[in-house]
Write a structure and sequence with these properties.
Helix content: over 70%
Distance between the termini: 28 Å
Number of helices: 13
Shape: globular
Largest sheet: none
Strand content: under 5%
Length: 274
């Protein structure tokens, strides 16, 4: 019975990861919140690793769905198209440098001081408000950068600086980079795609660091739950990404800002009455 209950918890966490990883509402924040109520009955070290490494399943959804666009060696592409693909990757690399460096340097500090309930509540509300401010102020987002060719390396670096904010749980990697990209003039669809692409090296790197820290001393059940979690996160991520890309073609991000604020205040009430 214990194993069945734990597996159900893992499935729920994986579904939450697959949905929230790509929407600007913070996957890590939601995972921390869900674990607050479900209380996964495994060691602290395993849970810390699990909540990060499960994202590998989600990131594989992006890799597979955008494989042709991100593959610079595709035989279907002309020489010019291959150069454009390499250019995309170079801009992604430039964009991930700030978060990559600071994430490695301050990993232990961030885990100790910010991976908690109050931090998630605070960042949910703050960035929810920021989404509403950005979307309601037309002067803040001209959206004159419509494709990767028009995206400069300098702008890519500035977007990467915004991604640094996502090192704090509850911020949302996609949320921070999309807000930054909108402020810097990218269209919604380009801002979202660039955010997705920047998440590939960041999430792979973070997962490898957690795996290295945890080691390979998995029990059979731990290894099984990790595989199940990544698979479910992958399947749900495919659905989530398709929905999100279709959604932003017609609508803005206000609904996500409102959701973050409402959830934040609900959690404040929960903390008061519990």
């Amino acid at each position: 019975m214990f194993y069945i209950l734990e597996l159900i918890k893992v499935i729920i966490l994986s579904i939450v990861e697959g949905i929230t990883e790509w929407l600007p509402i913070s996957s890590t924040g939601h995972m921390i919140l869900v674990d607050e109520f479900l209380k996964l009955s495994m060691s602290y070290e395993f849970k810390e690793m699990f909540l990060v490494v499960i994202q590998l399943g989600a990131i594989m959804a992006v890799v597979i769905m955008y494989f042709e666009k991100l593959n610079p060696f595709s035989k279907k592409k002309t020489t010019e198209k291959k150069k454009e693909t390499f250019d995309i990757w170079l801009k992604v690399v430039v964009g991930v440098i700030p978060a990559g460096i600071l994430g490695v340097l301050f990993d232990k500090f961030l885990n100790k001081h910010f991976y908690n309930f109050p931090t998630v509540i605070f960042t949910l509300i703050i960035y929810g408000v920021l989404f509403l401010v950005v979307e309601n102020n037309k002067n803040l987002k001209k959206q004159n950068i419509q494709n990767f060719k028009s995206l400069s390396y300098e702008t890519a670096l500035f977007i990467g600086l915004f991604q640094v904010l996502s090192l704090i749980p509850g911020t949302s990697r996609s949320g921070a980079t999309i807000i930054g990209a909108l402020l810097l003039g990218l269209s919604r669809s380009l801002a979202t795609e660039f955010s997705f692409f920047m998440s590939i090296p960041i999430m792979f790197g973070a997962s490898l660091l957690k795996l290295r820290k945890f080691g390979l001393n998995f029990s059979f059940f731990e290894f099984f739950t990790l595989l199940i979690g990544m698979f479910i996160a992958f399947v749900v991520s495919v659905i989530s990404i398709k929905f999100f890309m279709k959604y932003i073609k017609k609508k803005d991000f206000k609904v996500f800002g409102i959701y973050r604020i409402i959830l934040g205040f609900i959690l404040i009430l929960y903390c008061i009455i519990k």
